[in-house]
């Protein structure tokens, strides 16, 4: 989504009257004029396209419906990983919104917004922001990598949260959620305006102290071990005698780095590579990866044929052990599954959000 790059002038005035030489004069205080590029807002008139699958689902057999159900559950939990891959604050913003909407639907929340002092346009801006976060699974655009922020004052959004039923039910939790993301939610510091590596932008695929040189070195190491970067993240720390140490974290339900039943040979472990040390370890996103694998195993029960069964077996192995090779094997069975009634493809596939272009969403 490309938005027009017109500048929006937002001037916030706070005024008070004071007495000077016996005359009441209007004094402007705390004048803040903020020039914000409109590309960081989603416009209020942006289109929303609901995906209605009710009729298509009704036409499936009971077996096909259960197959589709468990595939969608696997995709749901896998999709939550994208929040963690986008920005440090994305997951907290998502949970905050979920709690608001689970307690009150948008129509009911609108009355709360009015009572909290939001104009109809400001409440619409809030809904548009929420839709944007859900659509992009994070607060950066899926295409273009630009951050977007709510097009209403921070104080108004906070007032809405504070007046909501979710806040009345659990003020401590809601306040903690707000405090964990509010600053970054609105921040447009230069580094936070876009996804990028090092001082070029924000990424959670790499620790904040990684730069292009680190990404290149890690890629050479992975290539030397015939490991794919698709399901990894890289974290850098200083080791003994100033030696560079890196953690390569594999997305997997399994947390043990030693070889486990059903896996075969493991590639986890400690490796010397030039003047650096790499530690390959499992367990990144482990709770979510387990839910993905469990639901794929349930879907297998309702598979239409052997190709679907074998496909799901390999995908589950991939997400359990962190094996990209197993995912490739599953994809071979996916290709063999000709003309399925219910089709799906799941995994760390697209690499456009990784600033280095190697790690998958």
Automatic annotation (TrEMBL):
| Gene3D superfamilies reported in the protein's UniProt record | 3.30.540.30
| Stored PANTHER family | DIPEPTIDYL PEPTIDASE 3, DIPEPTIDYL PEPTIDASE III-RELATED
List UniProt keywords, sorted A-Z. Hydrolase, Metal-binding
Origin superkingdom: Eukaryota
Name one matching Pfam family.
Peptidase_M49
State the GO CC annotations: cytoplasm
What protein name does the entry list?
Answer: Dipeptidyl peptidase 3
Q: Which GO terms describe its molecular function?
A: dipeptidyl-peptidase activity; metal ion binding
Q: Which InterPro entries match?
A: Peptidase_M49
